[in-house]
Amino acid sequence: MTMTARAAAELISVSHHLGLRDAGRVLAAGLAGPATRRGSASLYDEDQVHQLINRPQCSLDDLDRWRPFVVRIGRGEPFDALAPWADRVQAVEGPWHLPLATSIALTDWSSLDPGDVTPGTRRMRHPLVGVLADWVTVGAEITGHSGGTFRLAPPGPWFGAFLDTWLPLPPRRRCVLWSSAASLMHASTRRIREQHPGSWIHSVSDPEADPWPARTARAEAIAAYQASIATNSTGTVPVRSNGRL
Predict the structure, then answer these.
(1) Whole-angstrom Cα distance, residue 124 to residue 105?
(2) Are 24 and 123 contained in the same domain?
């Protein structure tokens, strides 16, 4: 079955707590497969839309293990998730403004095996993950950078842990090096809440505030979507003919 671009965008928006604009970018990029034209309408395969929505969150253990440099693909930047790797990777090459600490970490703190190098020399090799609306779209390995622009190589087997997932990122950050203070603050808070439900890391300004409201809202939206699908499978909840919630 197919659904219109509008219906698919609304479904993605509701189930992942995204704006319609971002949901439309996800569809236009091909994350839910290619669109087919019927007259003036763009149609998407309903199963592929649901598969995208049901992609799992990347585990924090894998993020901690590989410590990727994560880049959000810009809103004004065209991107085709179905294109070859060499075309997709251009969206994450940069140039980026890299703080000194980040540059040092990328060079000396790589989580990838640097291989055999001449004694006394250093060789950068660090995982990079590009995301669109936090869904993983491309992976690469940073082998160097000049003027903030990365030199990138295809990803190794480590990328299998990130493929077809979405990342729990801090909001409003264009790029982030995982294991930096900005990323770990949110992840650590999340872990403590999961492991010790009665324990909280309180905010000084508001002890009851959720330090990660956007990500919490997204998780709750996904849970609600999955519950609605499970309920509908019993035939007790009607669904509109156009597939919208």
Answers:
(1) 10
(2) no
Q: Are residues 67 and 182 in the same domain?
A: yes
Q: Are residues 27 and 67 in the same domain?
A: no
pLDDT digits (tens, 9 = 90+) for 71-96: 999 888 889 999 999 999 999 998 88
Tell which phi-psi region holds residue 226, choosing left (phi > 0), alpha (psi between -120 and 50) or beta. alpha
Report phi then psi at 119, rounded to 5. Answer: -55, 135
Distance CA 225, CA 245 (A): 9
Within-domain flag for 204: no
Residue 71 CA to residue 85 CA, distance in Å, equals 16
- CA 228/CA 232 separation, integer angstroms: 6
Domain assignment of residue 40, given as a range:
2-54+219-232
Q: pLDDT tens digits for 37-73? A: 888 889 999 999 999 999 999 999 999 888 899 999 9
pTM of the model: 0.72
| Contact status, residue 96 vs residue 147, Cβ threshold 8 Å | no
Residues 77 and 151 in one domain: yes
Position 238 in a domain = no
State how far the alpha carbon of 176 is from the alpha carbons of 128, 131, 240, in Å.
Answer: 10, 11, 40
Establish if 200 belongs to a structural domain.
no
